[in-house]
Design a protein that fits this description.
315 residues, alpha/beta, eight-stranded parallel sheet, 9 helices, globular, binds 4-carbamimidamidobutanoic acid, binds zinc ion, Ureohydrolase_Mn_BS, hydrolase, agmatinase activity
């Protein structure tokens, strides 16, 4: 915890919230404070996508929508920006012409940032970036429980022979021993697969699943019970692909699947996990070109805010 009184966001009652440069939630930049506890950082990168491109514009789009966030979160009864020094750490530079170099750059930058702050919430970017982010967090915490909210499993093996894509990060991370596979889960998965073998492979790796259908059938409390039982008090990394939401709630994404969660359900799920030992998180796959009226960006900005609130609430 920093020694200084946290510097909060620009006061929207003194400076119009639509004025000025958009940092996340109008928070100070990391350079503007002596020390920080929680950093929000962008990774504008989408070289790993299999369908619609454009997630490289995700971080700036989410920051724009986050201008409207306010400092008190009644749902968690917490003022996250007063409790902890939360900052915007800008964007990590990721080479769009070399996926391998980009992955190295993300790992290196996230490792460095992780030495400066306690916890990081990353805004993507396509889901490829979860791999270097998990490599970075592994150096700090060892293998972490991964709670992965997504329409997709993202444990596929290769695409066009390529091992590193947005459909493969959790397969690679499992193989590298970055994930505690006794405590990890997918949440909100649904939709057509390549074959039954996709699910069998996923089980073999060690993941469990709370599907979108399970959540609809049994409700959020039952889903939370399953997740909490699985994760326990292990260091937890939460990776949220915005396509876990139904396309009605998140049209601005690259591989949309019908039958997903509402934003209200997603926010409730995070709140129900707020007391767990969350050590890092990402929110990925926001692709503004397919967004309308900032629907996806508003949802994503609230998801990030809820994650930051959860992290700020636990010492
Ligand atoms: N990670 C995301 N969003 N999508 C993965 C989809 C991979 C596929 O095209 O089969
Ligand atoms: Zn997905
Ligand atoms: Zn994904």
């Amino acid at each position: 915890m920093t020694e200084h009184t946290p510097q909060g966001p620009v006061d929207a009652s003194l400076t119009p919230r639509y004025a000025g440069i958009a940092t996340f939630a109008k928070l100070p930049r990391i350079e503007d404070v002596p020390a920080a506890d929680i950093a929000v950082v962008g990774v504008p990168f989408d070289t790993g996508v299999s369908f619609r491109p454009g997630a490289r514009f995700g971080p700036s789009h989410v920051r724009e929508a986050s201008r409207l966030l306010r400092p008190y979160n009644p749902a968690q009864d917490i003022s996250p920006f007063a409790r902890k020094q939360v900052v915007d750490a800008g964007d990590i530079v990721a080479n769009p012409f070399s996926l391998d170099e980009a992955v190295r750059q993300v790992e290196e930058a996230a490792t460095e940032l992780g030495e400066q702050v306690d916890k990081i919430v990353t805004i993507g970017g396509d889901h490829t970036i979860a791999l270097p982010l998990l490599r970075a967090i592994n150096k700090k915490h060892g293998p972490v429980a991964v709670l992965h909210f997504d329409a997709h499993l993202d444990t596929w093996d290769t695409y066009f022979g390529a091992p590193t894509t947005h459909g493969t990060p959790f397969r690679r991370a499992s193989e590298e021993g970055l994930i505690d596979l006794t405590a990890s889960m997918h949440g909100g998965t649904r939709g057509p697969l390549y074959g039954k073998g996709d699910l069998e492979d996923d089980v073999k790796l060690g993941f469990q699943i709370v599907t979108s259908e399970f959540i609809e059938e049994h409700g959020i409390p039952a889903a939370l019970e399953k997740i909490r039982e699985r994760v326990g008090d292990k260091p937890l990394y939460i990776s949220i692909d915005i396509d876990v939401l139904d396309p009605a709630h998140a049209p601005g994404t690259g591989t949309p699947e019908a039958g997903g969660l509402t934003s209200r359900e997603m926010l409730r799920l995070i709140r129900g996990l707020a007391d767990l030992q969350i050590v890092g998180a990402d929110v990925v796959e926001v692709a503004p070109a397919y967004d309308h009226a900032q629907i996806t960006a508003v949802a994503a900005s609230h998801v990030v805010y809820e994650l930051v609130s959860a992290m700020a609430g636990r010492d």
